[in-house]
Amino acid sequence: MKSICLALLLCFITSFCAVAEKLAAYDDIPLHWRTEIIPFPLHFAPQIKLRGVEELVFAPGMYQPKRADFFSYAFTWIIKPTEIDESLMHTYLRQYYQGLYQAVAKDNPRSDMVKVTISEAKTDRFYRGHIDWVEPFVSHQPQTLYFQASKTHCSNSKQTRWHFMVSPQPKSHAVWTDLNALTLAQC
Description:
Blueprint: H1 2-20, E1 26-27, E2 34-39, E3 52-58, E4 73-79, H2 86-104, E5 115-122, E6 126-134, E7 142-154, E8 159-167, H3 175-180, E9 183-184
């Protein structure tokens, strides 16, 4: 009985700590959403030559395939000012998801698992599109992820912030309301 109580306490503390992590790019993370901070170079995609950090915010159903918010999340690259044109964004997203796939699917690493399509580009400040890949964490099934990325330049801190929202749900789905409701912090 004591070991069960201890295990539950550790799970609670671990969950609380994951939520309590302070992010620079987001204010007021919703209850039950999880966060993570990863420094560049990203361990799963070291070929992305950026300097800074990636902050991630995961929907509660991120790793639960039966949930509507499965694999729905937001992330921000807080980086030294860098121009990322459409071609470079395409390359970075392909390297990002290819690296993520290969890091997780170690038993079945393939180099052809990711196809990025940018369907809308507004100068170098906004991109929208989709990513076709095989989801390696839970379902191991082909998946289309819809994304949008927008840039904010923070002149006071001399940073560029690329804010991404990603979900396999179409833009008309309610999960996008939740993603859009994430409050971005002021620079």
